[in-house]
Amino acid sequence: MTLLIQKEIFSEDMTQFYVAETAQAIESIHRLGFIHRDIKPDNLLLDAKGHIKLSDFGLCTGLKKAHRTEFYRDI
């Protein structure tokens, strides 16, 4: 959130980078079988190299069969 406050407006390239980083972070926890359920700027941290790290897994839940899109295709 601090970077967003400092910059006020991200360039298109910067926005594209952080959206991609966020998508990769979410994909990583999905591969581990979890759903975060509280993605917001306050829960996106930057490491020393500028990469996104997810935080605050308090609302996190396991990925169940009913959460997968394939479950709903035949309903």
From TrEMBL:
Residues 1-75 form the Protein kinase domain. GO terms for molecular function: ATP binding; protein serine/threonine kinase activity. Its EC number is 2.7.11.1. It catalyses: L-seryl-[protein] + ATP = O-phospho-L-seryl-[protein] + ADP + H(+); L-threonyl-[protein] + ATP = O-phospho-L-threonyl-[protein] + ADP + H(+). Belongs to the protein kinase superfamily. AGC Ser/Thr protein kinase family. This is non-specific serine/threonine protein kinase. InterPro entries: Kinase-like_dom_sf, Prot_kinase_dom, Ser/Thr_kinase_AS, Ser_Thr_kinase_AGC. Keywords: ATP-binding, Kinase, Nucleotide-binding, Phosphoprotein, Serine/threonine-protein kinase, Transferase. PANTHER family: SERINE/THREONINE-PROTEIN KINASE, SERINE_THREONINE-PROTEIN KINASE TRICORNERED. It comes from the Eukaryota. GO terms for biological process: intracellular signal transduction. It is an enzyme of class 2 (transferase). It comes from Adineta steineri.
